[in-house]
Amino acid sequence: MKNETGKDFFDEFTGESGKDANESFNPDPEMFSANFLEEVEQSLHESISLRRDLHGEQCVATNQIDKCWRCKDDWDKNRHVLAQCVRGFAQGTIGGSGGDNYLVTDPTDDDAANPKPGTLRFGVIQNKPLWIIFEKDMIITLKHELVLNKDKTIDGRGAKVEIANGAGITIGNVANVIVHGIHIHDIKKTQGGLVKDKEDQPARERFKSDGDGMTIFNSSKIWIDHCTLSNGFDGLIDVTLGSTAVTISNCKFSNHEKVMLLGADDTHEMDKNMQVTVALNKFDAGLGQRIPRCRWGFFHIINNDYQPWRMYAIVGSAKPTIISQGNRFIAPDGRRKLVSMRANATEEEWKQWNWRTVNDVFENGAQFIASGVDPILSPEQQQHMNIQPEPGSAVEHLTSCAGALSCTIGKPC
């Protein structure tokens, strides 16, 4: 299925970020999703071969993304290999690969307008590609939102890195960012102020932050992997304002109400070309809603583990396309059994939206109401779409290592 107005929209997009988004837009998302499914199916059968014995302990890579880099003794000497492992719509994102490593030694965030060398904020504003790593365990409390420059990887492997008790992360008007292996929790609304977001530009006045764990807007080629997110003031992850080519994978979400926003408003037609893969994540019991909340774009929700939610799981408006494949949905006790909810549309309208469920598993009365029709696919697309995803019954295994990993340098991770 091709987005009805995608090309026209990107013809009108201006600026570097718009050009990046235009180049990242995939005109055949079903075919792209099918390729990912094929790789996931292969990985489940191959994962057992990626087990190593280490003093009686086993390292197990349970899915296609992880088997690309995990369970190798020398991962810390070859960190940039991670950039070869992205799947889904963000495929091709390399973050800071090819650039220098930057070591965070200082967890403070005293001056957002003039950040000190050695701090995380100093690293993320540099104009060159950087692979950002951490000297030791640290809790970083941000006074203002952490605004990332393009071509960056934040790699928390080898330390327990927490962004906590302050502002969250902002990825705006940039391309090519990887965030891997960090904890984001207890994010607060913070006051506005002067914040430097590029090394060669003066600090700019920014409004107060909303209290989101991670905000992504007008950006492309963004990969969020193996992060643990919980207990923010607003959302845990927001993807809005023309962003596309995004993959959110292997993450663990817990203890929160509004989890994930993919498209901020029904009037934001710029999101018609948003393409997001939500894969291999674990949504813990007790999350409230928006798992995710979708508008306008094309959303591939595959092999995620949904524990009982409080209100509903997936909700959409403004005619999004949603392909739900190989997920496990465990409904809560009581009346809140609906997985898929439509908003701001009559039944006559939403019945035309393409919402499909394939090989999902529904437990405790969970219900997904499908709608629309199967798209007309080319012979090549049909070939790929005929490859079945891993069924929902495999999800517990596939997501068993979701969230930030405890990696020790010199040992398999």
From TrEMBL:
Its EC number is 4.2.2.2. It is an enzyme of class 4 (lyase). InterPro entries: AmbAllergen (IPR018082), Pec_lyase (IPR002022), Pectin_lyas_fold (IPR012334), Pectin_lyase_fold/virulence (IPR011050), PEL (IPR045032). Pathway: Glycan metabolism; pectin degradation; 2-dehydro-3-deoxy-D-gluconate from pectin: step 2/5. Keywords: Calcium, Disulfide bond, Glycoprotein, Lyase, Metal-binding, Signal. Its cofactor is Ca(2+). One of its GO terms (molecular function) is pectate lyase activity. Residues 1-10 have a biased composition (Basic and acidic residues). Residues 137-335 form the Pectate lyase domain. Residues 1-29 are annotated as: Disordered. Binds 1 Ca(2+) ion. Required for its activity. One of its GO terms (biological process) is pectin catabolic process. It catalyses: Eliminative cleavage of (1->4)-alpha-D-galacturonan to give oligosaccharides with 4-deoxy-alpha-D-galact-4-enuronosyl groups at their non-reducing ends. Monomer. Belongs to the polysaccharide lyase 1 family. Amb a subfamily. PANTHER family: PECTATE LYASE, PECTATE LYASE 18-RELATED. Has pectate lyase activity. This is Pectate lyase. The lineage of its organism: Eukaryota, Viridiplantae, Streptophyta, Embryophyta, Tracheophyta.
